[in-house]
């Protein structure tokens, strides 16, 4: 079974960009030794033999290289920071979105589009999608971040202006549609929902069906380091994306995905770069030919709690199987590096009455790390229903787990 998204005849003529990235990485003193003995890749087999590049490695490389765009400004953006060190990414004006628009056109000139990704504060999604809207030639409401108590007035404005498209992270979109549904507000003109930054949320689809029954989802997958890797349409599965021709996806051990940029304009030296996501190469349900990328979730969601590995995804899956729970999040409180407590936060349906104590006992008995690490203080493991999960105020993204230092 092939482990690359492109066949050799399509990928290998484009490997000059990968060879350039390797040359740049060899100039970074901290990274050069790992590439000793590796030749510049001319084949996919030679590319697969190169060591993967991880997040911290790329930060080291970018600090040394300080890339500059050949034309226009060089934009510096930041991602992450919820559960680890922030990662940096560089991009030229336009953010490579001309290549995205050539293959994926969810917006057209007749659209009235609300860009609800947070603007500024070194996150790139708002500006990246603004570049896409510019290429589409549509009308744009550059809304950015909005507090929950402001939603009602803006929803009325959207209806009045007959907004046809909106975009944001699924966490932000969920707020919009949940508030509209609770208020009995509908958006009959809305047809398109663009998303990027998190996995799609099934509850969001349920709210959309009530608030905007004509709306359909259009997704992008990528990161500040890789920029947009792939896209999907309403006919694709929500977890499945078609890689762009100048993005090469490889499935490594433990199904970990790594990405290699084939675009010679790419400022970040993306060479077998791992984001921490796992996936497979599959045939997409939409029927489009070629290998699509099914994203299975993150493999870096194991966090140390009192010396034991807590598999966050397993805890969340158990919590979200509970009737009335639409989404969950793990909040770990630490003091001097030692976990003093674990809270499982639940976002529940408005009419649901979730037995949090029963769920707490079930999680304690079923999760080895929690039952062992908190054997002498089980009360430090809590399950709480909340009005909102902990999100990044800069980006609007909601991580599966958050670590906080005890005050």
Provide a descriptive summary of the structure in words.
This protein has 407 residues and is of the alpha/beta class. It is 27% helix and 28% strand. It has twelve helices and 19 strands. It has helices at residues 8-11, 16-26, 44-48, 55-65, 97-101, 125-136, 151-160, 170-183, 202-211, 312-320, 356-366, 368-373, and strands spanning 74-79, 87-92, 112-115, 139-141, 165-168, 192-195, 216-223, 227-231, 240-243, 247-251, 256-261, 273-282, 292-298, 302-305, 308-311, 325-335, 338-348, 381-386, 401-405. It has an eleven-stranded mixed β-sheet. Helix 8 packs parallel to helix 9. The mean pLDDT is 91.
Summarize this entry quickly.
With 407 residues, the chain is α/β, with parallel strands linked by helices. The chain has 12 helices and 19 strands.
Q: What is the rounded distance between the termini?
A: 52 Å
Number of helical segments?
12
- In terms of DSSP E residues, the strand content is 25-35%
Report on the biggest sheet. Answer: 11 strands, mixed
Q: How do the strands and helices of this protein lay out in sequence?
A:
Blueprint: H1 8-11, H2 16-26, H3 44-48, H4 55-65, E1 74-79, E2 87-92, H5 97-101, E3 112-115, H6 125-136, E4 139-141, H7 151-160, E5 165-168, H8 170-183, E6 192-195, H9 202-211, E7 216-223, E8 227-231, E9 240-243, E10 247-251, E11 256-261, E12 273-282, E13 292-298, E14 302-305, E15 308-311, H10 312-320, E16 325-335, E17 338-348, H11 356-366, H12 368-373, E18 381-386, E19 401-405
Parallel strand pairs: 3-4, 3-5, 5-6, 6-7, 16-19, 17-18
Antiparallel strand pairs: 1-2, 7-8, 8-9, 9-13, 10-11, 11-12, 12-13, 14-15, 16-17
Helix pairs in contact: 8-9
């Amino acid at each position: 079974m092939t482990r690359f998204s492109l066949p050799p005849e399509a990928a290998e003529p484009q490997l000059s960009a990968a060879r350039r990235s390797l040359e740049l990485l060899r100039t970074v003193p901290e990274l050069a030794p790992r590439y000793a003995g590796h030749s510049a890749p001319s084949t996919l087999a030679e590319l697969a033999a190169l060591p993967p590049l991880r997040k911290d490695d790329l930060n080291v490389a970018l600090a040394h290289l300080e890339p500059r765009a050949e034309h226009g400004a060089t934009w510096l953006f930041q991602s992450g920071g919820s559960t680890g060190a922030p990662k940096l990414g560089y991009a030229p004006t336009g953010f490579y979105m001309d290549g995205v628009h050539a293959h994926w056109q969810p917006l057209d000139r007749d659209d009235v589009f609300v860009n609800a990704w947070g603007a500024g504060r070194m996150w790139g999604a708002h500006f990246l999608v603004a570049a896409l809207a510019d290429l589409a030639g549509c009308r744009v409401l550059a809304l950015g971040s909005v507090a929950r108590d402001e939603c009602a007035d803006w929803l009325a404005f959207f209806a009045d202006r007959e907004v046809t498209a909106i975009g944001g992270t699924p966490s932000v979109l969920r707020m919009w549609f949940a508030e509209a549904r609770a208020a009995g507000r509908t958006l009959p003109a809305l047809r398109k929902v663009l998303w990027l930054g998190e996995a799609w949320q099934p509850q969001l689809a349920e709210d959309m069906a009530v608030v905007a029954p004509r709306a359909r989802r259009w997704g992008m997958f990528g990161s500040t380091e890789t920029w947009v890797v792939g896209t999907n349409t309403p006919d694709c599965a929500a977890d499945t994306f078609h890689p762009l021709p100048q993005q090469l996806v490889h499935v490594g051990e433990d199904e970990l995905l790594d990405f290699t940029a084939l675009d010679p304009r790419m400022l970040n030296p993306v060479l077998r770069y791992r984001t921490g996501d796992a996936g497979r190469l599959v045939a997409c349900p939409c029927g489009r030919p070629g290998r699509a990328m099914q994203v299975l979730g993150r493999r870096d969601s194991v966090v140390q709690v009192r010396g034991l590995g807590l598999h966050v995804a397993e805890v969340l899956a158990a919590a979200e199987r509970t009737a009335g729970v639409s989404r969950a999040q793990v909040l770990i409180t630490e003091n001097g590096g030692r976990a003093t407590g674990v809270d499982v936060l639940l976002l529940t349906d408005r009419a649901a009455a979730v037995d949090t104590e029963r769920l707490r006992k079930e999680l304690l008995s079923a999760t080895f790390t929690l039952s062992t690490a908190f054997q002498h203080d089980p009360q430090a493991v809590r399950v709480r229903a909340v009005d909102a999960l902990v999100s990044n105020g800069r980006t609007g993204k909601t991580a599966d787990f958050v670590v906080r230092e005890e005050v």
